[in-house]
Amino acid sequence: MNFRSLDDVTAIIRANLHRLPRDLDAIVAIPRSGLIPASVIALHRNVMLTDVEGFVAGRAFAPGITREKPTLRADPSTWNKVLLVDDSVFSGRTFDAVREHLRTAGTRAQIITCAIFGTRPAHDGVDFVLDVCERPRIFEWNLFHHQHLSQCCVDIDGVLCVDPLPEENDDGQHYAQFLKSAAPLLVPSVRVGTLVSSRLERYRAETENWLARHGIVYDELRLLNLESAEERRRSKPYAEFKASVYKSKPQHLLFIESNLEQAAKIAELSHRAVLCVNGMTFFADGQLVTLRRKLQKKRQSLARWFGLPAAPGVAAGTK
Q1: Is residue 186 part of a domain?
Q2: Distances from the Cα of 119 to the Cαs of 11, 12, 115, 137, in angstroms?
Q3: pTM (two decimals)
Q4: Are 246 and 281 in contact (CB under 8 A)?
Q5: Does some domain include residue 9?
Q6: Can you give the pLDDT at residue 318?
Q7: CATH number for 251
Q8: What is the extent of the structural domain holding 59?
Q9: Confidence grade of residue 62 (pLDDT, cut at 50, 70, 90)
């Protein structure tokens, strides 16, 4: 599984701005996934921005009051060259359909096409592909609305809902209230493969009720089979339990976790892709995590041997 975040989009655009034409009058976004990268490019280039239907109707997003308006061509009918932007390309059918729509609508401007991500450096019918991201792939902006979620393990606390506060995590009355009223965070609009949580098995009914109340559909729910939260805190089986479930699901492509330390450990134990939504840190595979940790420990060992300050830590598995 390959993953790209919104931070990746911004960095890739900055690194590739020199490749794009300098004489653009506007950026036209293919909704909705093209809106964010189109906005970033338009802001960097200080040109007008609109979406496809706005372009056809002669509408553009008004610039902010701090922008130099005399340099911006606000009337779409005067645009000579525009950049049509989408987040990604695979078959190219979307770009073909939009170009035909613009042609039929009588658009006279020259249309240059740009995809932020493609499965190869060049695609027929697309002028610019800024970065290669092969399939299977998933993006931060459609993470919980993509069919791939049915092939994922997904944590609950910190992902689907907020984490309990320390005073709520009492394994008693306060925790029961939390399970009933926890505020949702990232609610999927598609089926989830396997929900995996360090919640105790004895809270299955409360967990299932909360999931049903928020319309979250899933194939399986796996919880820890321990007697008490005290036993869980003593044994700390969090990452090991989650990794064992993940390893038992060879059809799954990704584990989505909220805790960075647990995410690193799950990746190390499973040797598979893990995403920590707290910071959108992606672990490509367990070998990469293990290797980086070994290198970090080696540097620290050498530093101690020579009496030097400890080497700065390297975040295992960061992009």
Answers
A1: yes
A2: 18, 15, 10, 9
A3: 0.83
A4: no
A5: yes
A6: 33
A7: 3.40.50
A8: 2-135
A9: confident
